[in-house]
């Protein structure tokens, strides 16, 4: 049975729409490195119960302003501990020198620095009702350009 004139147009329209969706899906597929780094949120890196704190996020920037990642100060009310996660957005999947640090006024200090693919994390350090300062940094694969961020002054003093 032959198609009516409008039925042929509908078949062609459906084919064009389907092809467009397939093409858009392929174009929207992120790279494997991006997809892997996107899976690392500061909540996931620091662990269950840790939340982002007020004034606890900074971009890790080069001296020219390029962003290589972000550093997050996290806190768990239940444990009274802090954690810092430095998560790369450039050179993800490539081992580059990446670090994170936290210092608690009148308390301890924790730092983690190695050649990581996606992030560095300080571990958990006691900080309830104490002021903290934090930092994160990463470098390009040659180790020549560093991007850093954080807060050099004391803050988040109220537990």
From TrEMBL:
It comes from the Bacteria. It comes from Nonomuraea maheshkhaliensis. The keyword Signal applies. Keywords: Signal. Residues 1-35 form the signal peptide. This is N-acetylmuramoyl-L-alanine amidase.
